[in-house]
Design brief:
Helix content is 26%, strand content 32%. The chain is of the alpha+beta class. The protein has two domains: 18-81, Winged helix-like DNA-binding domain superfamily/Winged helix DNA-binding domain (Arc Repressor Mutant, subunit A), CATH 1.10.10.10; 88-242, Chorismate lyase-like (Chorismate lyase). The strands form three sheets. Strands 4-5-6-9-8-7 form a six-stranded antiparallel sheet. The protein has a two-stranded antiparallel ribbon with strand order 1-2. The chain has a two-stranded parallel sheet with strand order 3-10. Helix 1 (18-31) crosses helix 3 (55-67).
Length: 248
């Protein structure tokens, strides 16, 4: 259960709905570290008292935060902070950095390897280039709020990104770099998700046991000149979810 926390009580004079204000007050406690990952938050009755709003308003706010991936409800136990989980669903074409920011997480990225290599047949097919063509391979450990979430390996044709593999220093958001340095702006991407397991090599980086469940995600991104990126991501099964809303 949480310790003392300062709640920003909703103001009925403001134009925003009370449930929205209540949700932002709770989100702020997660963002500033008052409520850390795994923390059990107060129940609806207590939150209603602390925020000065009805339980229905609190329930609406909690449901939105749960759908955003910041909270998880466990039947018979309560509601817990889940700030290190990425919820994937219907969304625009964004980078991992943007996904983290949209969910209020502090992005973490560690470069494991960057080199120029010949394209394998799989990479070549994805990028629509001849097998053996030079590609820049970028392998990074990605995280949120100082917790590892996945390993991403991106392949880009050297003809589109000359000199990229020779870069030194911290690597910014890949899409930001491509846009600012090479004038490449993604227009469309195709992603394929499948269930797999974490290899022994990746397990140490992801801080899980070998063969732990994972999502394997293949992304091919293209601009008006064709495919420019093929990325293979290994995402921890306990920190990455896919949710969809279905309509009749």
């Amino acid at each position: 259960m949480t310790g003392p926390a300062t709640f920003a009580r909703p103001d009925r004079r403001r134009p925003e709905p009370l449930w929205h204000q209540a949700g932002e007050a709770l989100r702020a406690l997660i963002a500033d570290g008052t409520w850390t990952d795994g923390t059990q938050i107060p129940n609806e009755a207590k939150l209603s008292e602390l925020l000065g709003v009805s339980r229905i308003t609190v329930r609406h706010a909690l449901r939105n935060l749960e759908e955003s991936g910041l909270l998880r409800r466990e039947h018979g136990r309560g509601t817990f902070v889940r700030s290190s989980t990425v919820i994937a669903g219907v969304r625009g074409l964004t980078s991992f950095t943007q996904e983290m920011a949209e969910r209020g997480l502090v992005v973490g990225s560690r470069l494991i390897e960057m080199a120029e290599i010949p394209a394998s047949s799989e990479v070549a097919d994805a990028l629509e280039i001849p097998a053996g063509s030079p590609v820049c391979m970028i392998r990074r450990l990605r995280g949120g709020n100082d917790l590892p979430i996945g390993i991403q390996t991106a392949y880009l044709p050297v003809s589109r990104v000359p000199g990229l593999s020779a870069m030194t220093g911290p690597l910014p958001s890949l899409y930001e770099l491509l846009r600012n340095r090479y004038g490449i702006a993604p227009q469309v991407a195709r992603e394929i998700y499948r269930v797999g397991s974490v290899s022994a090599e990746d397990a140490e980086l992801l801080d899980v046991r070998a063969e732990s469940p994972a999502f394997i995600v293949h992304r091919i991104a293209a601009d008006n000149h064709g495919p420019f990126e093929f990325t293979v991501s290994i995402m921890r099964g306990d920190r990455y979810e896919i949710r969809s809303k279905l309509y009749l």
